[in-house]
Every structure is written in structure tokens, then in C-alpha cells.
Design goal:
Layout: H1 5-10, E1 23-25, E2 28-30, H2 34-52, H3 54-91, H4 110-121, H5 123-139, H6 157-168, H7 170-189, H8 201-204, H9 211-251, H10 259-306, H11 309-331, H12 340-348, H13 350-370, H14 377-408, H15 413-420, H16 425-430, H17 436-466, H18 475-535, H19 537-549, E3 552-556, E4 562-567, H20 568-573
Antiparallel strand pairs: 1-2, 3-4
Length: about 575
Amino acid sequence: MSEGLQVELFHPDSDREPGDTNYQGFGFDVHPVVFPVALAVIVVFVAATILLGGQASAAYEWLFNGINAYFGWLYILLVTLFILVVGYFAVSKYGQIRIGGVEAEPEFSRFSWMAMLFSAGMGIGLMFYSVAEPMYFFDGIPPFFAGSAQAGTAAAGGPALAQTFFHWGLHPWGIYALVGLGLAFFSFNRGLPLTFRSIFWPVLGERIYGWPGHVIDLLSVFATLFGLSTSLGLGVAQVNQGLDVVAGSLFGAGVPTGTTSQIVLIAVITLIATASVAAGLDDGVRRLSTVNLYLMLLMLGFLIVVGPTLYIFKGLVNGLGTYFVNLPGLSLYTGAFAGQSAQDFLGSWTIFYWGWWISWSPFVGMFIARISKGRTVREFVAGVLVLPSLFSFLWLSAFGGSALFAQLGGGGILAALSNQGQAIAMFSMLSQYPFGAAASVLATLLVVTFFVTSSDSGSLVIDHLTSGGKHDVPKVQRIFWALTEGLVAAVLLYAGGLGALQTAAVTTGLPFAVVLLVMCYTVYLGLKNEYEILESEAFRDYIEEIRDDEDIAVTSSGDDVVTDVSDESATTDD
């Protein structure tokens, strides 16, 4: 095969390389601007949060309410637009383009790839909300479905599941697909640093290496850190409740629950995550993500078998029908004509989720980009957008459906949710079915592994952002960011609990939503330019030249555009 095909024809004419101006010392290899500025802002934020105490909590609440009131409509509009954009990239002629170029081969098997992207994308949140959210909507019909059913009745299960599907289905994965595709394309197809600044090459050119690029990467760092802190805070609350339930079942006495216990748990689990991060992407993150997926499948299969199997699958089909029929209306619903209660609902649920997903998108998108070399754009979008959404629907039907079934049969899940908070919902539901104690142990273990994989993935992503886009960074640096993530999550939890975590996610998501809007255009320009080169006479001549000189196999699409170039002798040997 020809070495340098992608470099010679597709890379921009620039003498810059990822991390070429980095500072190296004390085990660190960092960007001279992004790393110190990001670290300084984080230190100031942590110090101010601790010193201000109750004032910080009040400020978080004020900011959260203001964003919901004035910018909620923008979140709703943009997230729907992002789905339409990635869908167009997949079904259009650009879907044939291969990430990394026509010679690129996948680094990971399809199963490992799916395991890693799903573990990074949804894990802790699905565990935390898969029972609590449908139960909330069962007890109070979402405003979009107002009048369609009476709260607390069997008919309320349909809109409850459909609204939950909406929050955990195509929309969040559409955001991740857009960000992941942009990062993967400009890094692997254009040879630019694996950071957000690279996506803006079509409009900024060499200026991505100046202050415009620094600002973009700094926004990415803050969005990643605070979005991840939200998930870690949710996860540790559920671990705390799980340990309390398990200890009570096994030893007759629970463990303390509350902020202090959760901060201790964050410290312990962060140390576990740090060890995994130090092991690296292949030895640590990939293996743990695969174990994580097996545990998820075991948990899901267990509940389908011991739970109300028929009700789960009927609920899945019914919920999907309600979801897809109402998807256009749900996607653009702002509650403008439904009163203050609808506005409050959207602020607490939909707008919070959209801000959370957007703030998570640098983290999940970059991690997905890092593991997706060799996939076509169409395969990438299908893998990132469709399959995880379908799995989420099944998971939510199993856990949310089992909770609805138990509640309708006289279970006390709503009472537990009301008295003890969202973190208890999963364990309250499991107690209604056989082997509830064993299932609670498995659920707690699963939340811990999700916590660790999320911290692992986030550390690797922030490493890339603060090292000028280098793919490989020193172990000390990975450990540093894993510990920093745990510290920020603990401080936010201490300062204002879940409200502070939610505010941090929504606030950092707002400016980043504008970044993603511009990204839609720059990714389009990049794909358009790539396709034009693939169609060009110069590229055809190049392919014919190496076809004559080397033993290679060339695959073309129906319009004679080359989509794959591989070593024929290696294929034969396999």
C-alpha cells in the first residue's frame, strides 16, 4: 500500500503539528496556553465555591433559572437541528467517506467500539433516571401529553415512557454524533490536532493555532469538566443509596447517606478510576468498557426474565409508537402556550438534559472520535445514533416498565421516590421482584464501573485538549486530570448538591451550543472538500499508479468514487 496517500492529497498545507509548541517537564506535556489558563480558572472556581458557601448555591439557582427562562427555546431548536444535520451527512453521498482516509482500518472490533461509545455516552445517567423519570411522568403527565391520560393510571404509562424515550433517544446521540464526526474527520482525514479548534480549520485556517483556537479549546475543557462532574455526582448518590440498601439486606444495618458519605465515595472511586486511566486506553478503558457492557446485558436480561416480561415488551412497542408519532412535536415543544407549569417542567427536564448533553459532547464526542478511525461516515452515524438509541429504549422499557407494573400492582416506588429522592428509585423497584438483594448488588457494581469508565474517558479527553491535540500523553498527566475531575465533582456536591451540578452543566452547555452550530457548517465544508478530491482526476491517477505498483484491492461506490484501499495480500492471508 502507498504510505502518505492521505497526507499528500488531503492534509492542509501547513507545517504545524499537534503539540509542536508544548511545554514538557515534570512528567507533563501540555499546551502553553490552554493548560495553565484552564487550570487557573478551575482553581479560582473551586476556591470561590468553597468560600462563598450558601451564596454560591443561591447564585447557581439564579443562573439555572435565568438560562431556562431566556435560552431554553434556543437549546430546543439547536438540538433538533443537529439531528437533521448528521442524518443528512449519513444518507447523502458524503456517507461513503471513510474516517482516516480510504486506506484506514478500524482500530477496534465493532463490539469493542460499541461497548466503549455506549459506556462513555449514557451509563450513569441511564442507571440514575431509568426508573425515577418514568415514575415522575407517571405521577404527573408531561405537559406535551396533557389530557391524553390521567396521572397514576395504567394509561399514564404510555406518555411516561414516550417522554423518557425522547430525553434519552435520538436527540442526545445526535449531538454526540455531530461532535464525534467533526473531531474524527479533521484529526484523522486532515492530520490536525485532536481538539475542537481543528474543526474550525475551514473558516479560521492557521488561526486555529492562535487565540481563537485557544478560546474554543478552553470552552471545551470547561464543558467537559462540568458535564462530567454532573454525571459523577449523580452516580455517587446512587452508589451511596445502593450500599445502604445492600448493607441493610445483608447485615441488618445500612450505611450513612448524604453529602459527606458521597464525597468520601467520590474520593474512593476516583482513585480506582485513576488506576484505570494510568493503564491507558487499550489496557484500561477498553477492557473495563467491555466488562461494563457485559454487566449491563446481565442486568437487563435478569430483569426481563424475573420481571413482567410481556408487559416490558408490550410497553416497548407502545412507547416507541407514541414516541415516533409525536417526535416532530416533542422536538420543537417550548410550552409557549401552555403556561408557567410547562415552562417549569421543560426547565427541570428537557432543557436541563439538552444542556447536559451539549456540555458532555466534547467529552463523549472526542472519545468516540478517538476510537472510530476506519469507519465510514454512514457506519459512524448508524453506530453512534441508531444502535445506542435502540438499546436505551429497551433498557428504559425494562426498568421503567417494571417500575410502572409494580406501582400499578400496589408497590411503594412512588412513596420511596418522594421520601428518599431519585437515587433510591432503582433499588425500590428491584425490591419488588425476586432476588432483589442480589440485583441491588449488581446495580451498585454497575454504577461504580460506569463511574470509573466515565472518569477514564473524560481524563483522556481533557488530556487531548490540554496537550495541543496529541493522541498520546504522559501517564502523570492522565492521573492529574482524573484526580481533578473527582475534586470538582466533590466541591460542587458540597456547595449546592444536585442543583449546583445541574447548573454547571447547563451553563457551560449554552456557549458551546453556539460552537456546535458553527460546527455544522465547518464539517459540511470538510466533507464536501474530501468528496471533491475523491472525485478528482488527480486522485484517480494516484490510485491507478499504486494499483499498478502494489498488490492492493480498490473498492469503489456506484458512482466510481473510491471508498476503500486495502492490502490484498494481507486480506488473502487472513
